[in-house]
Each structure stands twice: as structure tokens, then as C-alpha cells.
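Entry type: protein chain
Record version: 2
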Amino acid sequence: MLTLRQIEVIRAIMMAGTVKGAAEFLGVSAPGISRVMKHTESQLGLRLFSRTHGRYVPTHEAADIFNQVSGVFRSVENLQHSIAALKSGETSTVCLAAVPSIAQHVFPNAIKQLRDDFPDLKLNLNTIKIEEAIDYLLLGKGEMAALSYKLDHPGLVMQPLYAGRLVAVVPTGHPLAAQSVVSVHDLAKDVLISIDPDDPYGAILAAPFYQNALPFDLSIQARTGQMVAALVAQGLGVAILDELSLASPAMRDGLAIRPIKEPTTFRAYAAFSAERPRSIFAERMLAHLKAEMGRVTVMRPANRT
């Protein structure tokens, strides 16, 4: 069997017409080209070139071999194009989703990094509720969902992304804004704005009250953390939210964000179908999400916002 190196030498001589020209084309010495050519003809038991007026001309008998050589190089060029297209994402579409607390700031930042990695990648992006993630992944609507809740489902693989905390959110000028740290006991006495506690995300926000055996009453229920923050900024009440929801500077206008005195936890996960292999795009998105969420922790305000 001919090696790729032998095929490369045959093609170079075909194109250049001389051993010297083939050597220059391949960036090697002319004697090296001659040795490869002699060994190839001896191996095949066939003369591939005849020398006419100082030039190497393909023999009539070897015409079919040269057609095959050209075909090999066309296949190699097509392979190189396919690899380049894969590296840029030119021929691929990836579908990704995030819950609202992540979709507001962290998710778009990670998508920007992903697009920098794969400039031609087509993207289909969605904002979903936690309870919608199972159908989104198992029905093949998307490849990955960034969630604020660990779903227990045999068809899903959950990968940790982030471990942070919840924070108190009050209007600027509110009496609690003067405190460097706010207790859930003080929040429970005020007008509360939050998500329905029966909602998975709402249950996360309500957990500090339950853990401290505090009765609480929601004066206003909203559907997303972003709406909760906007309502607090209007002076309609106080709230508990997660740090990822408040990562965008635009989200913090009119708000005083304070650490909560009592211990709190907020975690984020990437969910995948257990039946489907991950693409290189999803793996890269996973890395970018972790990095962006890490920046939220690093940039965490000490006490005051």
C-alpha cells in the first residue's frame, strides 16, 4: 500500500513537473524526493513517470493511478474543510436553555464566550421554568438547561455549576438598607414580595423562613426574580433573591442588597439528557457558565450595594 507521504510526493511531481520543483513545493531536499520516488516505483513494479526534455511526465500506464491520487487529495481537502467548519461551528446548531435567574445576565455572558469560540455556530436559546426542563431535554428540544434546582429524574444527568447564597433585597432608603446585614426575622415582619412557595424556585427563596420557623405572608407574588427585583425597586416591599438574578448592574438600580444574617444556600446545575452524548459546544458552554458564575462570587459586594 502507498503511504500518504508517497502519494504526496507523486502529486507534487505531477504538479511541478520536476524533482526540484516538487522538493521546493514540499519544502524538502531534491535527493529525498528522488529516493521516495524510486522506492515507490520499485514497490509498485511500475514506472510512474518518464523523463522528457528534463521534465517528469506521467506514463500512459499510470494515468489511472494519477486520477486516484487527485481523488485522495480532494478527499483530504474536504476533510480539512469539514474540520475547519466544525471548529467554527459553521454546520452546527445547538439548543440551550436557562431558568430566568440565570438567563438574565450570566447565561448571555457565557453565550458571548461560546460564540467567540465558534463564530459560525447557530444558536437556539430559550428561557424556561424549572419544571419545563424535563420535557425540554428528554423530548430533544435542547441539549442543556442551566437550572437553579437539582431535578431528581433517571433520564437526566445533573452537573453542579455553582454554590452561592441568597441575599436580602430592599428599596434604597428603606430602614433595613441602613443595616450592613439583614436578618430574615426583620424581613418576615415587612411587606414581602416573592415567587409562589409551591414553585421550585419560590421554595428556594422561602427556605430561610421555613428553616427559622418564621411565619410569613406574601403581599405580592410574581413569576420571576427579575419582576420581584423591579417591584422592590418601586418601593412596594422587600424580598429574598439569589445572587445570580442580581448579577447584572442594571438589575440593581433602586435596590439595596444586603447579606442575610442566617445561613442560606443557592445552587445552580447544568442538566443533560442521560441518553444523548454531549457536543463539544455544550461542554464549552458548561465551562463558560462555571467561569461566569465564579465571577459573580468574586465580585460579590462586601456589605453594601
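Comment: The two ends are 72 Å apart (CA to CA).
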